[in-house]
Write a structure and sequence with these properties.
Blueprint: H1 3-6, H2 50-63, E1 67-71, H3 74-82, E2 90-94, H4 99-108, E3 115-119, H5 124-129, E4 135-141, H6 153-162, E5 166-170, H7 175-178, H8 181-184, E6 188-192, E7 206-210, H9 213-226, H10 232-242, H11 245-265, E8 272-273, H12 283-289, E9 296-299, H13 304-313, E10 318-319, E11 329-331, H14 343-349, E12 356-359, H15 365-378
The structure holds pyridoxal-5'-phosphate.
Residues 73-75, 98, 100-101, 141, 145, 170, 172-173, 192, 194-195, 204, 206 line the site of pyridoxal-5'-phosphate.
């Protein structure tokens, strides 16, 4: 069965006596037991719930994983992965990460004796060379948020295996429809299911996938033992969203390609960051390891004021954090999602202050282009993009 078929054809209600076509929402905290000595398949929803189990089976299938675990948010899922470490251990992380991951890594983990070192993951060999005696986990995003920097999963995975450490990839930006890091050599995959997996901007959820039995045992223990599990109703919403994953992602990506190409030609726009453009630094690697560049595009305009004006003039692109919804959204990562980038990293790796991040939805692409073109023209002073020292990029791989 091909993945697109499996998205809608699966056992929606295992054991359901009425053969429900859609997965029942088992909105219950407890399950009655046969007797104090005989336990059924489920006893308590934190430990296991049939709606969540159907979702986890779908997610495992999509990532080519044996095990998938659904959490209450992407950050709860990432936190669970960090439980693979103990005091004294170190995470070697890519230098471009989601803002909330930086907050977890820099402000919370050190309280428990776990340190994090950030190294540019753009060059796989250089990245794995930074593994130290204390490193237990490598952690990267690709395409990374919000500059869409690409790293070579297979290259980093091979280097990590040689050095006896595990690699975790945050696959949120492409979704399993476009990229499967486990097949490329990653040991663990995490998702913020709040983005493409849910796809409608109405659920907060996270996922951990793995084929490593030792990892699975720990994540399962953490899911039950710390309790940040995904609730039955949220599991159901995700299952519903997943049915259209292929349609949504393909449509959003097709529109994003069109918009990225037009933006790259627009004289009022500075840099365009989109892995589907041949000028993108990670273009070749991206083509090798993924089935498409996704639907998030970042652009610069030359000044924070200009970017803010453009966002203010947009009507269809809604000014919200997050991405991956059927509705197009726009944000300024430097002051929104990435306000938590640690100060020591800001110089080299913080998003440029004038960066606009667009998440392309399923609307008509010409309506979206009209919205963008109008907003850009309405706010133009005729001088074109002004690249000032303060907004110039340093360090990270990027397109010119
Ligand atoms: C949103 C996001 C997260 C965090 O997920 P939440 O569901 O918001 O907790 C992690 N990684 C990436 C790449 C994200 O975009």
């Amino acid at each position: 069965m091909k993945a697109a078929t499996r998205l809608v054809n699966f056992d929606a209600g295992p054991g359901d006596p009425f053969h429900a076509s859609a997965t029942p929402v088992y909105q219950t905290a407890t399950f009655e037991q046969e007797s104090p000595l005989e336990f059924g398949a489920y006893d308590y929803t934190r430990s296991g719930n049939p709606t969540r189990a159907v979702l986890e089976a779908q997610l495992a299938f999509l990532e080519g994983a044996v095990h998938a675990f659904a959490f209450a948010s992407g950050l709860a899922a990432i936190t669970a992965v960090t439980r693979l470490l103990k005091a004294g251990d170190e995470i070697l992380a890519g230098a471009e990460l989601y803002g909330g991951t930086f907050r977890l890594f820099s402000r919370i983990l050190p309280r428990f004796g776990i340190s994090v070192r950030y190294v540019d993951a753009g060059d796989a060999e250089e990245f794995v060379r930074a593994v130290s005696a204390r490193t237990r986990l490598a952690y990267v995003e690709t395409p990374a948020n919000p500059l869409l920097t690409i790293c070579d999963i297979a290259g980093i995975g091979a280097g990590c295996r040689e050095r006896g450490i595990r690699l975790c990839v945050d696959n949120t930006m492409l979704s399993p429809w476009l990229q499967n890091p486990l097949r490329l050599g990653a040991d663990v995959v995490v998702h913020s299911a709040t983005k493409f997996l849910g796809g409608h901007g109405d659920v907060t959820a996270g996922v951990v996938c793995t084929n490593d039995e030792e990892v699975a045992e720990t994540i399962g223990l953490v899911q039950n033992g710390e309790g940040a599990t995904l609730a039955p109703m949220e599991s159901w919403l995700l299952l519903r969203g997943l049915k259209t994953l292929a349609l949504r992602v393909e449509r959003q990506q097709a529109s994003a390609r069109t918009l990225a190409e037009r933006l790259a030609q627009h004289e009022e726009i500075g840099r365009v960051f989109y892995p589907g453009l041949a000028a993108h630094a990670g273009y070749e690697t991206q083509r090798r390891q993924a089935r498409g560049p996704g639907s998030v595009i970042s652009v610069t305009t030359g000044s924070v004021e200009r970017s803010a004006e453009i966002i203010g003039a947009l009507r269809l692109f809604r000014n919200t954090v997050s991405f991956g919804s059927v509705t197009s959204t726009v944000s300024m990562p430097a002051c929104m999602s990435h306000a938590s980038v640690p100060t020591e990293l800001r110089a080299g790796h913080a998003p440029p202050a004038d960066l606009i991040r667009l998440s392309v939805g399923i609307e008509d692409v010409e309506d979206l282009w009209l919205d963008l073109a109008r907003a850009i023209e309405r706010t133009a002073d005729g001088a074109g993009p002004k690249v000032t020292g303060a907004t110039q990029l340093q360090g990270v791989g990027h397109v010119d």
